[in-house]
Amino acid sequence: MKSPKEMSLEKKLLGLLDSKSEAHKLAVALIADEQIQDIQDYANNVSIKRLGFNDHGPVHMRQVALNSIVMLDLLRQAGIRTCLEAEEQGSYDDSACAILLGSFLHDIGMSIGRQDHELYSSLMARPIIERLLEALEISNKRKAVISCMSTECIVGHMATRRIHSIEAGLILIADGCDMTKGRSRIPISMNTAPQSGDIHKFSAASIEGVDISKGKDHPIRISVKMDSELGLFQIEEVLLPKISMSPSKEYVEVVAKIKDKDERRYL
User: Fold this and answer.
1) Residue 218 CA from chain centroid, whole number
2) Would you list the DSSP string of 54-96?
3) 201, exposed or middle or buried, with CB in 10 Å at 0-12, 13-18, 19+?
4) What is the pLDDT of residues 60-80, one digit of tens each?
5) 0.70 surpassed by pTM
6) How far apart are CA 112 and CA 80, in angstroms?
7) Sequence-separated (6 or more) residues with CB below 8 Å from residue 94
């Protein structure tokens, strides 16, 4: 059974998409797909219980989808075209479809393990992507383009491999934006011995919220609220490296607000 958080994110995501678009139809299919849900659930089990990492399951992948689509819409509002649009290889809707597929499937490789999980995710995702695209009433060329773009989105989300599209760049940033205390709640509650990497879950626990909105100087503003300076680790060691590797970095500004202190601007 899905959690209230999953259902809330799904509702917000569908509300951002044109109900008549292929992207909306695809989002509905992704949300309802039992195979994807089962793999996401198991990936989360491996991530949290076996490896001691934070959430890499259905909530995280839905949050990344929501973050990505919010940023994609902000770019459209600013008159910035996606790579598929600029290169005349597809439409805004095609870019949205690729981003949705990439977001929902980018961490399913965690069901195997952490190392190279982005590559495992891409291998596991291809038959699922082909199956879901086959149900859409679009040309074979559009299916091929969306499939390739979504694969780039998956492979590039760890900032370990160079990517070249705005679309993949948005998922890279969106993934880094999911760093609130809710993502680390379960790992922290588990009584485990101290180990390397604990800083990630404890720093995430200090993040109260991440807001993505229209920027003052850039199309996208990422505002991170935290209750202590420990949360700066998440910005400086997780989010900023991903932004620096993203082809979408020129469109983003980042600010941090620590309780009772002045706002700190990074980008």
Assistant:
1) 20
2) ---SHHHHHHHHHHHHHHHHHHHHTTPPPHHHHTTS--HHHHH
3) buried
4) 999 999 999 999 999 999 999
5) yes
6) 37
7) 22, 84, 142, 145, 146, 149
Q: Is 212 exposed, middle or buried (0-12, 13-18, 19+ CB in 10 A)?
A: buried
Say which residue the tokens 């879950």 belong to: 201
Q: Is 260 helix (H, G, I), strand (E, B) or coil?
A: coil
Place of tokens 């793999």: 39
The total number of residues written for the chain in this structure = 267
> Which H or E run includes 224?
strand 220-226
Cα 230 from Cα 199, distance rounded (Å): 9
List, as one string, the DSSP characters of 149-217.
HHHHHHHTTTSSS----HHHHHHHHHHHH--SHHHHHHHHHS-----TTHHHHHHHTTEEEEEEE--SS
Instruction: State the DSSP H helix or E strand holding residue 45, giving kind and residue range, or none if neither.
Output: helix 34-45
- Is the alpha carbon torsion for 97, 99, 101, 103 positive or negative? negative
Question: What amino acid is encoded at 7 in this protein?
Answer: M
Tell me if residue 245 falls in helix, strand or coil.
Answer: coil
**Which run of H or of E encompasses 252?**
strand 252-258
Q: Contact 73/92 with Cβ under 8 angstroms?
A: no
Domains and CATH numbers, the chain: 4-175 (1.10.3210), 181-265 (3.30.300)
What is the mean pLDDT for each group of 10 consecutive residues in the chain (267 residues)? Answer: 94 98 98 98 94 90 98 98 98 98 98 96 98 97 98 96 97 94 52 57 85 97 94 93 97 94 90
φ, ψ of residue 64 in degrees (nearest 5): -65, -40
